[in-house]
TrEMBL record:
Protein name per UniProt: Dehydrogenase
Organism encoding this protein: Catellatospora methionotrophica
GO biological process, any: L-proline catabolic process to L-glutamate
Pfam families reported in the protein's UniProt record: Aldedh
Lineage top rank: taxon: Bacteria
Claim: Transmembrane is one of the keywords in the record: no
Gene Ontology cellular component terms for the protein in this record: cytoplasmic side of plasma membrane
Keyword terms: NAD, Oxidoreductase
Ranges of residues in domain Aldehyde dehydrogenase: 92-493
GO function term, MF aspect, one: L-glutamate gamma-semialdehyde dehydrogenase activity
Length: 547
């Protein structure tokens, strides 16, 4: 099958126009249905996707890249025997192939690149159930979450990046005849990509966190090396496979996108990141490695999303049960293994005012703990919210947190009804007065008694200012308190949610409306997705000649 890039742009032009409008208007809009219902995707879609996923297990992954050897680094948190083998290609070969692909991809221009990118997204959408199974198996996410976050929501974020990249490249003329008195010049403005991009994937959200950087670099003309986390290779291997197929069919070099696989025993991320040919790096993961990239990969434009101390200021509420339910669900979802999950609950030691009267500090904490207990009471239902623990480091953090204070709600082990090998843990809430200023990734929440809401705001400002955060929340019936926390959030550069008691949660981020991370505090130096996320991935080089 052969298609032209012009045909691809024409096919997807209406979708691109809708996305361009959505990033301006910021209202609710989604291009990809988030419900895995057969009424939406067809009666056989789920079974077909599962069968396609099963067919990959225990075999060499079909990818047309040269292989120095084949490796199978993944270990499923659910104990699913994946056994998929991937080609490991040397960094030298990857970079040489990417350099050779750069010219044709650059010269394709933003319109043709947009057509290719949107076709890749369309084909990934057709394989959404296969991708959902891959995300589910490699991350420990419950299946519905894996479908939504790993499929439609990730596709929306990728489309958002394409829209921003296209807008940034096309908002001015490509050439102009310029006249000043007796002098006339023909000026041409060339869009020049930075160079080779490197996307370093994470174990927990391999598509949601990787696709924005991948497509932001592609739409702006940069070939990309995709280096998955060794624990979650398959979702990104499918991504690369689809991208290479579309590129080849469009008559472009498939090495514009390549898979860079490594293992825990022989990592290559640092080696690749320091190569002078690597000019863009997108990373999601630990603070330690994110800081290392920012400090050492000086030849590249580095975009990092790291860890932070997500904080909730509880002052008062007009819906105590709703507040407890909302926070309880936020703490339970994916066992707190989200960069957006609340960690610190700042509550006045004297308690708070509610529609049901005064609640003491202990009653507030018990209310939130009770909501968690209600969600996790039935193990068969609970695992559809908690998923599985992604790695042993999370379990170690639970054990360490237990020693920091008084355990109000202990983390319990649950047996997964479908996967005997899964490690499942419910959320823990610990009352502490110290030790809460560092990030503790996983199902651990600290309940912190403060002298007053004023002190809560001061602690919020101090901890987020020093450690960063991806999200923050406040509960109050006092407009002056809401305003004070909003002012503090602006000062420390963190997105704020106020009085969430219904079906929207602080750890959710909606593409085309919400910015994920801000780039304005230590937790992340970039936002997904805005103009700044794409604009530095290319430069405008002008030439002038007498007309």
């Amino acid at each position: 099958m052969t298609v032209t890039t012009t045909d691809l742009f024409t096919t997807h032009e209406e979708l691109l126009s809708s996305a361009l409008r959505a990033i301006t208007e910021r209202g609710y809009w989604s291009a990809y249905p988030e419900s895995p219902s057969p009424k939406v995707y067809g009666e056989t879609a789920a079974a077909d996707g599962k069968a396609a996923f099963n067919a990959l297990q225990g075999l060499d992954f079909p990818l047309d890249q040269p292989a120095d050897e084949w490796v199978a680094p993944e270990q499923s948190p659910f104990g699913i025997p994946l056994g998929v083998r991937y080609p490991r290609t040397s960094p030298d070969a990857l970079i040489a192939a990417a350099r050779a692909a750069l010219g044709s991809w650059r010269d394709a221009g933003p319109q043709q690149r947009a057509g290719v990118c949107l076709e890749i997204l369309a084909r990934l959408h057709k394989r959404v159930f296969e991708l959902a199974n891959a995300v589910h198996a490699t991350t420990g996410q419950a299946f519905v979450m894996a479908f939504q976050a790993g499929g439609p929501h990730a596709l929306d974020r990728a489309l958002e990046a394409v829209a921003y990249g296209y807008a940034e490249q096309t908002r001015q003329a490509g050439s102009v005849v310029w006249t000043k008195k007796a002098d006339t010049l023909a000026k041409t403005y060339h869009l020049v990509p930075r160079g080779i991009g490197l996307v370093i994937g994470c174990n927990t959200f391999p598509t949601w966190n990787s696709w924005p950087g991948l497509f932001a670099s592609l739409i702006t003309g940069n070939p990309v090396l995709v280096k998955p986390h060794p624990g979650a290779v398959l979702p990104l291997a499918i991504t690369v496979q689809v991208a290479r197929e579309v590129l080849a069919e469009a008559g472009l070099d498939p090495n514009t996108v390549q898979l860079a696989v490594d293992t825990r025993e022989a990592p290559i991320a640092k080696d690749l990141a320091l190569r002078p040919e690597i000019r863009l790096i997108d990373f999601t993961g630990s603070t330690a490695f994110g800081d290392w990239l920012e400090q050492h990969a000086r030849q590249a434009q580095v975009y990092t999303e790291k860890a932070g101390v997500n904080t909730v200021v509880v002052d008062s509420t007009a819906d105590f049960a709703g507040m407890c339910r909302n926070l309880g669900f936020s703490l339970t979802l994916y066992s707190g293994q989200m960069c957006t999950t609340p960690q610190n609950l700042l509550i006045p030691a004297g308690g708070i005012e509610t529609e049901a009267g005064h609640k003491s500090f202990d009653e507030v904490v018990d209310g939130i703990a009770g909501a968690v207990r209600a969600i996790t009471a039935d193990p068969a239902k609970a695992v559809e919210f908690t998923g599985a623990i992604v790695n042993g480091d999370v379990v170690d953090r639970i054990e360490a947190a237990r020693k920091l204070g008084d355990v109000v709600l202990d983390s319990a082990e649950l047996a997964h009804p479908a996967y005997a090998g899964a490690v499942v843990r419910t959320p823990m809430i610990v009352k502490v007065t110290d030790g809460y200023a560092a990030e503790c990734f996983g199902p651990v929440t600290f309940a912190i008694p403060t002298e007053s809401t004023r002190q809560s705001i001061d602690i919020f400002r101090e901890t987020v200012g020093q450690m960063g955060a991806i999200t923050a929340a406040v509960y109050s019936t006092d407009e002056s308190v809401l305003d004070a926390v909003e002012q503090a959030a602006m000062e420390v550069g963190v997105h704020l949610s106020a009085n969430l008691t219904g079906g929207i949660f602080v750890n959710q981020s909606a593409a085309f409306s919400d910015f994920h991370a801000s780039g304005a505090n230590p937790a992340a130096n970039a936002a997904l997705t805005d103009g700044a996320f794409v604009a530095s991935r290319f430069r405008i080089i002008q030439s002038r000649r007498p007309a």
